[in-house]
Amino acid sequence: MVLEMKVPSPGESITEVEIAEWLVADGDYVEKDQAIAEVDSDKATLELPAEASGVITLKAEEGDAVAVGEVVCLIDTDAAKPEGTDKADKKDKKEEQSSDKKEESKKEAPSEKKEEKKTESSDDKKTYATGSASPAARKILAEKDIDPSEVKGSGKDGRITKHDAENAVPSMGTPGGGSRGTERKKLSMLRRKVAERLVSAKNETAMLTTFNEVDMSPIFALRSKYKEDFKSKHGVSLGFMSFFTKAVVRALQEYPAVNSMIDGKEMITYDFCDISVAVSGPKGLMVPVMRNAENLSFRGIESEIKRLATRARDGKITVDEMTGGTFTISNGGVFGSMLSTPIINPPQSGILGMHNIVERPVAVDGKVEIRPIMYVALSYDHRIIDGKESVGFLVAVKEALENPEELLMDNNVKKALEL
Distance between alpha carbon 390 and the CA centroid of its chain, in Å? Predict the structure, then answer.
């Protein structure tokens, strides 16, 4: 029996996916539920499991966009399992095939050039001197206003081919001896969707950004005192994100307009806080969501962020875990960013940007002291959030972070940290 495997629907409103990578080769024997491919949707990268055991025949290439419900491979369920087949063998086979492909590519390259030379030689109908250009190459170089003497030919006896002319770049000074190669690579469906959303956010919202600075000394002191006990008891680190999430939730409850969205001519305000957390994954930026963050403890927030970030970086995040969110927190500080203007994650109306922490001289009670300072930025949609609300929100976040024991822990640190 030959089973037709079709693309399953990864989520509501998704009509097509892209084959990012086949994890098996054509003709391989696969086991039921074995991951056979990674597919990109416009929201996440997902694994495609085999629906039955048997020999697989691939019906789509890597990079192909396929509609939901379209057949991407066939599995012959009557085929016998080869003796000695196991995961290690398959891995070795895939690596061997990959190596073979590279070798074939190396072997084919000269023949391709040979074919190119043969074709051009046929077109030109004559033999060229060293460093001369074919008629097609001369025409292209003339259009680019490039002297043929400035181009190094890859053809026979150094002849300049059409390919050389197309890749030639006008000299901007003394030519160097380094590589000037280029690479053209198709953007993944996820990256294309992210690009569309970012451009849409810039073009369709009245986005403004307000800034402030936070003295991180109180949080440094709390983490220094309790982080070992916290990790020992809960198995996760006491990071900055739990403090920032708590501060954001408190500020959203105080300024509900920031926890709102525009839907046509209406404004939707939420009484819950689903916080999106921007993380860097292997396929690009991903924004998984912490549901009902207002009900999570410090331990709950740290555990959920670790779980979502791990799943995103391992490529196992689901569409449901990426959908929704009423407000976003983006931590560019982990990459060394000092200051930035984060872009709103539509249809949300606000995003908080965290940055790196640097010791800076600040005035404290009339004296200059060195304190660990972080710049924070709030980008917001001015159509529904006024300046007073945006500034007030960011000030509320700053106040909570600079006085966490009172405003985030109800003056009971051990209870808040569940120690």
Answer: 28
Instruction: Decide yes or no: CATH 3.20.20.70 for domain 89-167.
Output: no
| Token duo for residue 316 | 């196992």
Q: Which residue has the higher pLDDT, 175 or 55?
A: 55
Q: What is the mean pLDDT of residues 312-332?
A: 85
| d(C-alpha 163, C-alpha 65), whole Å | 29
Using alpha carbons, list the distances in angstroms from residue 320 to 92, 263, 290, 325. 34, 21, 11, 11
CA angle (418 as vertex; 238, 226 as ends), nearest 5? 40
Q: Which CATH number fits domain 190-416: 3.40.50.300, 3.40.50.1260, 3.30.559.10, 2.30.30.100?
A: 3.30.559.10
| pLDDT digit string, tens, across residues 260-298 | 999 888 999 999 999 999 887 766 678 899 999 999 999
Q: Which is it for the CA torsion 229, 235, 236, 242, positive or negative?
A: negative
Beta strands, E only, 31-99: 35-40, 45-49, 54-58, 65-67, 71-76
CA dist 302 and 306 (Å) reads 6
Which helix (H) or strand (E) covers residue 213, if one does? strand 207-215
* Residues designated catalytic: 382, 386
For residues 67, 286, 399, 336, the Cα torsion angle rounded to the nearest 10 degrees is -150
Residue that the structure tokens 């708590």 belong to: 246
Long-range Cβ contacts of 88-95 (<8 Å, 24+ apart) = 90/24, 90/28, 93/25, 93/28, 94/23, 94/24, 94/25
